[in-house]
Amino acid sequence: MNTSRVTLENIGKSYGEQWVVRAVNLQIQAGDFFTFLGPSGCGKTTLLRMIAGFAIPDEGSIRLDDREVSRMPPWQRDIGMVFQNYALWPHMTVFENVAFGLRERRIARDEINQRVNRALEMVDLKGRESRRPSQLSGGQQQRVALARTLVIQPKVLLLDEPLSNLDAKLRVEMRLELLKLQRGLGLTTIYVTHDQEEALAMSTKIAVMHQGRVVQVDQPRVIYEQPIDDFVAAFVGQANLLAGRIDSRTESRLAIDIGDGNFIEVSDGGTFRTGDAVWLSLRPEAIELALPGTEKTSVNNLHGIVAAAAYQGAFVEYEIAAANRIVKARVAHSKGKTLFQQGDEVMLTFAPDAVICLAGSDGK
Amino acid sequence: MELTTTVAIASPRQRTDWWQGAIMVVLLTILTAFILNPVLRVLWISVTDDQSNFTLIHFGNFFRRPLFRESLWNTLWSGALVVTFSTVLALPLAYVLARYEFRGKLLLQTAATLPLVIPPFVGAVALQLILGRSGMMNLLLQEWFDISIPIMEGLTGVVLVQTLHFFPFILLNTVVSLSNIDASLEEMAQNLGCHGLRLFRRVTLPLMLPGFIAGALLTFIRAIDDLGTPLMLNEKNLLAPQAYLRITTIGMDDVDGYVVCVVLVVLSMVTLLAARKYLSLAEYATVQRAAPVARQLHGRNLAVVWLVIAVILGISLLPHIGIVLLSFAKVWSFSLLPTTYTLGHYEEILFRVPHFIINTLIYTLLAAALDIVLGAAIAFLLLRTSVPGRNALDAIATMPLAIPGVVLAVGYLRVFHGWDFPGIGAPLTSSWLILVVAYTMRRLPYTVRACYAALQQVHITLEESAQNLGANRFRTFVKTTLPMIGGGLVAGGLIAFVTSCVELASTIMLVPRIELGPISYGIYLYMQSPLGRGAGAALGVVAILLVSFGTYLAHRVFGGRAGNAFRI
Prior knowledge:
heterodimer, A: alpha+beta, 2 domains, six-stranded mixed sheet, B: 72% helix, globular
């Protein structure tokens, strides 16, 4: 399939005084599954709509391969889009919905029939050509929407939170289906979501957005394991953010004072200097719990008291009062392992590798 | 209109209490007595002979008489023309209103509702003065070009007056359908390469069509139901005036009058059922997530829109201007404008014969109050209980939409004439109460709709949580339900008030004595003689003020959804 690279250069868009997107620079390679991830109102949908042509950027340029498209009307762009609510036309059958784009392209009737049939086969909806959208389930409607967009063989595929209207189980299934489909077609895909799990599971690259700006662009693994700041750390996955101050540094380790005589050691301390205020990001699943007094397995140990324990089968979510704050821990569980109860004294242990040191806890 | 589609909401866990059953019985009795029975009586007379045997001979006679055939054809033809011209006027305006932002939009919206405040039969008189044979326009044409355009004569005049009065109904319906279309449905088409007129034809038009057609059909019902305009313009060869003239001049025993009534009802019923079908289609077609983004109008396009606004505003204000001028005119005949002015007409209607205005206020406010009580009770039974008989209740309460005022009045005269009604010691037809009853029943569908919509928005859990916290049924109603539906009830009552103020068809047939007549009757009487026209016009101005005031209040209470009131 003939797929394109998308270049966004210094894109800005404002409504009145308010910049909803500002200074966005992105390179989306041909074949990428590229996700805009961020909370609602971060500008991700506006950015997507600018690529589709439903909004015109106030500054910057959008290029498809080397073609400037930022002022081109939507119907000339050859960029397929699947809307959050599917936007199936209720007055047309499934077949007519899928054939719409081909008819707009004045393609011969025989070829339209052929291509529509193939597209419906691909999304497993053969035999439902003459149904109306309202007669289909949510999952089926979504597959019609997908077929309708893919059948025109767009150069780029845009997906606007396509899974958000499905129930939890179907969402996980469709996630995998979509992943296989995209990898199979090798089609450049831009995906908008606020669901970090979806983003991590499907993307080849993620751009995390916050207040109209792109905060970090990288592969899912890097985004999760090396967040660039406290926002990314907290938004992608769960994170305990501990405010502290650099106490001392050696060749490979930083020691951070988090108050009340507690110190945490971190490897790979970046460019921080003694006295800098920092955030420490600690994933709940990186914490091990042990009975106080057991043999220490790491340099990082905190004493705490269980404030709440939620048993969830495969793991247990704890909230633990330690070092004058509440720390979340997510401990893998299997039959026979100790379950701590509210009020139990515990020792929190985590490796220096698991802690990430981020700039700027000043004034917070 | 959508009442029946959601009746099934009442959950099965609710048991039927005796008092709910009692309300149902009372309501069904009232509606049967004052809606179903009169209409069935009219039907009965039209299909039986002297010995009460079933016969279709009267209908055979109807279709054999050229006069009736012509009236039927004229009714259908003029109704269709009114809908067509209203559409031509309304469609582009609706598109501009729904899809564009521009300075002066509010002005256009207001201009579009102006025709609603002037009763068509009042507008007819005013337009005659301006566009009629010896009206302003033709006097000028005669002077300049020595020609005259008989635009107000006969059927043409009826169509013109009705178009000017009814196009806002189509406009409001179409604006609603257009703004109910989910934005993504059009954006998706653009994404797939479709735009401009092609986008409108393939996506926008099919999506708005059901809502538009429903509005058009309901406008058709109003047009064929309208008795006042043809009477004022002296166009007798239409079904409504035929029914009226048969009964009032030949008499209550003339079967032909009843046959004409039945034909009218059948036409309206069929149209109403069709409209209902399209309305349900329209609802299914709208997703209502995000309304399309309104685009800004600039430069040349804005100028064009402004020109259109000026023309529409000018045309829709013609009747208003005419009637106000006439109400102050001492002499206005064969001249461009009145030659001398006077306040005498207002003195006449305010001080010498004030009863028209007083009667109107008494009758319409009583009818509105009754409508609120009935409407709220019906809405309650439909939404909150599982009492048997709800479908029948809903059906009968909706029927008046398809019963022309003439037909209901004929039914009342037939049923309530000649026997003393319990409680008033005289036949109901000789009391002013008959007018209150007629207004109440005629406007009931509107109030039921308003109450139903209001109550529907109060989720049952809001009441359940009040009961859960210890409020009994009565206190729950007073403290949670009533405050939430109060606005809807008042708005429903205002709609009944406003439309009853200008109800002519049933009024002129049912007024027992002149001194018991309301404004619409007064206008009709005064307009019969050239000398009385001024006073009639002054009454018309009072009617316009009452309607404007009521509409304004409804807007205040209803907020942005006030347009809904005019959607049936």
